[in-house]
Write a structure and sequence with these properties.
The complex is a heterodimer of chains A (114) and B (110). Chain A is built from no helices and 11 strands. Chain A has strands spanning 4-7, 10-13, 18-25, 31-37, 44-50, 53-57, 64-70, 73-79, 87-94, 104-105, 109-113. Helix content of chain B is 0%, strand content 52%. Chain B is an all-beta fold and 110 residues long. In chain B, strands 2, 5, 6, 10, 11 and 12 form a 6-stranded mixed sheet that branches. In chain B, strands 3-9-8-7 form a 4-stranded antiparallel sheet, with no helix packed on it. A two-stranded antiparallel ribbon of chain B has the order 1-4. The chains are: A mainly beta (114), B mainly beta (110).
Chain lengths: 114, 110
Amino acid sequence: DTEVTQTPKHLVMGMTNKKSLKCEQHMGHRAMYWYKQKAKKPPELMFVYSYEKLSINESVPSRFSPECPNSSLLNLHLHALQPEDSALYLCASSRQATNSYEQYFGPGTRLTVT
Amino acid sequence: GNSVTQMEGPVTLSEEAFLTINCTYTATGYPSLFWYVQYPGEGLQLLLKATKADDKGSNKGFEATYRKETTSFHLEKGSVQVSDSAVYFCALSDGNQFYFGTGTSLTVIP
């Protein structure tokens, strides 16, 4: 099973709302990732968790707050977003963050900020 | 720094045509190379990979060979189908991070 699940599939939120995106994998992977993808562009790395610890934060604004409650779950808490944050948010996992293991992606959450 | 360059799209082919999508890379050391495919409204799916020079990755009729001498990893398929219409991303991993190409949109018409 190489499945990464994400909920919700679609999310519309106002600029004052607080919402969370969820990601789950049961492959025993110890690295999990959040990416942001704009239309017709490649994914942009936001955060990397390795063994449940934040290892990379690609200078992401503080209105995005990641959390890794355990090795299978990854959350992205959203607060006071801007319309330009509207995008497809992709979660991925890999066996480890090092050694060039392939990443497996979820289907994404389509976020619209109004 | 590390980077991946893909051929510009979009690419439009007739069904059963031969497909080549060019990908070249710049990297220090010995990266691993990947092709991912993204169908409309979905996440990225791993299509194939190669971890060392001269490796050939293959899956679902697609193949790509890791050419260190030309720093290339071109994607090929002998006979495309309408269902292959998608965006294809070439990527490399240096062991710390993934670097994606800009993506090539493929449309296959019946």
